[in-house]
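DM from R.C. (forwarded with permission)

"hey, sorry to bug you on a friday — could you get me a structure for this? deadline for the figure draft is monday and I only need the backbone to look sensible"
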Amino acid sequence: MNQDRSHSSLREWRVIAAMLVAAVLWLGIVLPSDAEAQSRTSRSDIEIDHSSTGFPLSGGHAQVVCERCHLQGIFRGTPTQCMQCHSPGGRIVSTFKPTNHLPTSVNCNSCHRTSNWTPAFFTHNGVAPGTCSKCHNQTTAVGKPATHIPTTMTCDSCHRTVGWTGAAFKHQGVGSGTCVTCHNGIQARGKPAGHMSTAAMCDSCHRMGAANWLLVSTGYNHAGVVPGTCVSCHNGTQATGKSATHVPTTANCDTCHRTTAWVPATFSHTGVTPGSCATCHNGTTARGKTATHISTTQACDTCHRTTAWIPATFSHTGVTPGSCATCHNGTQARGKTATHISTTQACDTCHRTTAWIPATFSHTGVTPGSCGTCHNGTQARGKTATHISTTQACDTCHRTTAWIPATFSHTGVTPGSCATCHNGTTARGKTATHVPTTQACDTCHRTTGWIPATFSHTGVTPGSCATCHNGTQARGKTATHISTTQACDTCHRTTAWIPATFSHTGVTPGSCATCHNGTTATGKSAGHFVTTQSCDSCHRAGVAWTPVTTYTHKSAFYKAHRAGTLCSSCHTSNNEVIAWRFAAYKPDCAGCHAGDFKQGPHKKVDSPTIYYNVLELKDCSGSCHLYTNSTFTTISKSRTGQHRPTGSF
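My reply, with the result:
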């Protein structure tokens, strides 16, 4: 019986073993391996709307592979709090709180963003005043530097959130006379090496009310300084001392220099012994006689008076008439010039004390016709090198009422003989650029108005303009003239030579920039929008060359927005290139308008309710929506029928 039981038990175990083997074989055939599953997943295009899970993906989260967060294929229960993944031993170990992180219980994404985790900008909103040092302790965040002013005040007493660094210290409440506690050259600026020697406190001179501490606003206060002790400070080290050329004196500085205006000091000559000027005015201590001073043994104050020391006006009173040359010899005082009229007369014969220079020569008594005796180019002005050739005496044309210039009378001159004098030497002749002609001068130039002469184009052969208008004889083409082989009078007419209106008839379309390059003719303005289209794509001769406010887009990218569009509908500046707002959908409508997509009206299946997404209906204008206004905001027509992702029905 026991043997039967053993056989029965053995048979049961054999059945169980066979079933297990069959199950294993079935699983090996039906279920794919991990590698196969991963391969199949990687080969399929699975798109998950992650926002429906309550955890939308953005920034760095959108770049992480699914398996990094969803472990072992389990999707439900995936952590949504930052610290559940970003922690030592967690799922994302590359970014977690360091040990010196600010102590806080707020969630990571209060400061850190998925677009860029580092740096994070800490907001001080809600931080209790006076608790700065809990974080600003040189470990968690920057603390006081070693040279900070010694104080027990909290940081936010001086530093404000609007500008943390560069805090202006408030001196209110600082004890008078305690400046050196901080102003010791370490915590704050102290006395410079050349500071005036004093035991007085800083705030004796430097005041809080001054706009600048380091410029004593009212100057050094000399009140209380003992008179006559100036050199205690004004010794050339602490303060400015006497200059090397100072007047020799044992008097104290404040004898001349006053507090109202210390420098310069006006020397008071009161009490100076008359006639002793040279004691100081010796050329070293004070200005002395110049090298060309009139030779005299008189004391300085004989001529120079205290009311106006320099210059001194020499009094000719008492000077012997006719003795001018004693001083006026070219050294002590001005003498005759090298071109002075040759004469033995004394200076004061012509030069009078009322107006010494210049002297007007009296021609009274001069023999008529003897002008050349003096007017020989040396003593007085003579004929110029280009004077008209004549043997007439000067006073034939030049009169005493107005000697220069003399107007030549052309009366009696033989017509057509102009070149006899107007040869470029005696009188002005043809210029080097004169129109080539054999006509006599008076053919064009008339006595009523010699210059300029208006050239008569009557009889000029048409098309021969360049014979004279070559840039030498007459104005030719400018450097920026339109390139053309046409004769000048093709465009320039006698009724109004300049400017000429260019006829665009016959110009090859699309070749505008050949002339309109900014040099030959007006080109694109600095504010012109960026385009490689030719000018006549927009600018038409029939309507108005300038300006153009609308542009017809040629690119297929703009589809419904091509014709009659205002530039400002999309562009805010001429050089602005409109970037795709949603690059994943370019070049279709959704590339810009994906943010306006409403899922509700775009139902794909009624039961169960399934909606189209943006990607499926990215070609809005090709599928359903037609726009008629220039701002693209009004849907003027929606097509009927079921939506299809390819734009068809």
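R.C.: lifesaver. Residues 2-30 form the longest helix (29 residues).
me: no worries. The two ends are 81 Å apart (CA to CA).
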